[in-house]
Amino acid sequence: MLEFSALIGAVPPRERRTQYCVLAALYFLEAHKMPVTVKQVKELLTLHRLKVADENLSARLRDYHSLVEVASKGPPLRWRLTARGLEQFRSLSGLGLVEVQASEAFDFDVGFLCALHHPELTALMDALGGEAKWTITGTGRHTHVYRTCSLQAASGSSLRVVATIATSMGLTSAAIAATQLVMQFRPRLVAMVGIAAGTRSGGKEFGDVLVADPSVDYNSGKVVQENGVRDFLPDPYPIGLNARLRSVLQKHQANTGVFERIRTGWGHALPPHRNRLHLGPLGAADQVIDDASRVLEIQRNWRKLIGVEMETYGVYRACHEAPEPKPRFVSFKSVCDFAAEKTDSWQEYAAYTAAQFAVEFIRSEWDSLWHSGN
Question: Contact at 8 Å (CB) between 349 and 207?
């Protein structure tokens, strides 16, 4: 680590503006590894007789919302230098600073995405403590409204969470929302949470959680006429889960205890049978299916199909093609109906089970999803 005087002296006096001095102080204090207080920053700047020490540093830090963030509310507040802030300081200083570790290249831990405000986002917000625990962030320049909160993992670490909804249902809106979420907040994990139509195979129940592995755009292909008969030749590009994420999720396929706790917390009418987790092909397309024969057509190509919905493939594709470092991605969609057997009766319960299971899975398994240094 360079001396602080060397960091300040890396630029001529006319370029030692407030932002540069504050970023230099945060870097020297290693705020990208361990959050620091305003008092620590002020003491360092005062020690080196820099005039910016006399400014309202708390206000300045709040102005640099893309470069720094509140890591804990204290009191006192503790501030973290984000990966973007570190890159900004590297650019301004022209110094060859130590490279950011992979785990430090993400600004947030979890980015949640829903298709609907109600019942999906409201259920997710309730699962994380209710609306009072969330803070709206971002500016009017952004198409989407973003909310942030924290989630305490089983290990005790505090996870940074951001959530938003797409502007409408469907693959295109989901892909756009996921892309903007990734580019603006750089979450380590993107999780789609919501409701879906299940298939009848496998004894599924209302409220069962479906995890897309892989997600499939079942409308991708070619429509042909052969001997006067219309047919469809699929040309899919399925996208599956990260192998480690898949392995950890598989442990929960036999975990009925978590679903019993979720059912107990509902407090309203419950479906007759216990709920479970299902991993398998989940079809996605910009259409609502109310025709049993259409489901059978899809199952001709995906015999283990667990359900159909309208967003996950767009989210998976956006994350799959995101800039490095790419986030991992997963989708938790709960059964609210069975395609040709449409009903709105179980939508709120399905949104509830999806949100509760997603939060509990991340809370309990976060540390097991990553190895040190990743």
Answer: yes
Residue 250 has which token pair? 């598989």
The answer, yes or no, to whether the previous bond of 281 is cis (omega within 30 of 0) is no
pLDDT value for 287: 73
What sign for the dihedral angle of Cα 122, 128, 132, 133? negative
Average pLDDT over residues 135-153: 91
Q: How buried is 355 (Cβ within 10 angstroms: 0-12 exposed, 13-18 middle, 19+ buried)?
A: buried
Q: Are 197 and 312 in contact (CB under 8 A)?
A: no
pLDDT in tens, 93-135: 988 765 445 455 788 999 999 999 999 999 999 999 999 999 9
Exposed, middle or buried by CB within 10 Å (0-12, 13-18, 19+), for 240? middle
What is this structure's pTM? 0.72
254/258 Cα distance (integer angstroms): 10
Rounded Cα gap, residues 15 and 24, in angstroms: 13
